[in-house]
Amino acid sequence: MALVPFKGSAQPAPYDEPDDDDAEPSEEDAGGKMSFLDHLDELRRRLVVAIVAVAVGFLIALFFIDRIFGFVMRPLQEILPRGGKLIYTEPTEAFMLQLKVAALAGLVLAAPLVMWQVWLFVAPGLYSKEKRFALPFVFFSSVFFVGGAAFSHYVVFPTAWSFLASFTTDYMEFMPKVSSTFSLYARMLLAFGLVFQMPTVVMALARMGVVTASFLVRHTKYAILIIFIVAAVITPTSDVVTQALMAAPMIVLYGISIVVAWIFGRRKAPRS
């Protein structure tokens, strides 16, 4: 009689259930794979929609150009010495300036839709649980962009402009060209609009597990050094006052980013 080996009912080794954030998502959960040409086509479509949105914003701003032009230029003229005015020396300079003002206003108006196109371009590479942050991303990125533009308009540029206009003497009179003034204004406004995206970028990185609040806290001193270097690079002027005005809100935004990373960061479930 053949002997049948005894099969013991061995208990399976215990294992820890992976938490939701650490679990490897299924292939269906991830966005569909796209080829390089698909990415280029997607980028083209998003750029077209964004450009159309800015063009529509430009046309709307052009309809209200007198009010917008006064909103931008009046504070700049008031800082000049008594009786001073911004000047233009080219026949088409004033006309082209109004178009530039309308284009800048159109970009600000179209900011939410532009941010939405940025999200739609990035979304195919995200997991479904990460796509739930579409509305927070668009909302916060738009709010921070407009907030940065407003901070530049009401605080930074008037302060920097007042400083640059303070060197008038008996031998020199400050008579800035209106096109150069607006060019400086627009560059500072866009720079602050982009700089104010720091909390939104950190929110996205924290959700993907790239950064954590503790990581940001540990590297604060290096971040401050990098902030001053970035401020020196992106500040349109070379004076120390304007660079400090650029760096100060960036440091505050870094502190806000730490709180954002703590709120939106991925949390591991406790092991049982």
Question: Short summary of the structure?
Answer:
With 272 residues, this protein is an all-alpha fold.
Task: Characterise this structure.
By secondary structure, this protein is mainly α. 67% of the residues lie in helices and 0% in strands. It contains eleven helices and no strands. Helix 2 packs across helix 6 and helix 6 packs antiparallel against helix 8. About 10% of the residues have low confidence.
Order of helices and strands: HHHHHHHHHHH
Question: Helical content, roughly?
Answer: 55-70%
Strand percentage? under 5%
Which regions contain 5 or more consecutive residues with pLDDT less than 50?
6-32
Overall, the morphology is globular
Number of helices: 11
| Terminal residue distance | 49 Å
Strand count, sense and barrel status of the largest sheet are: none
Q: Which secondary-structure class do the elements indicate?
A: mainly alpha
Radius of gyration: 26 Å
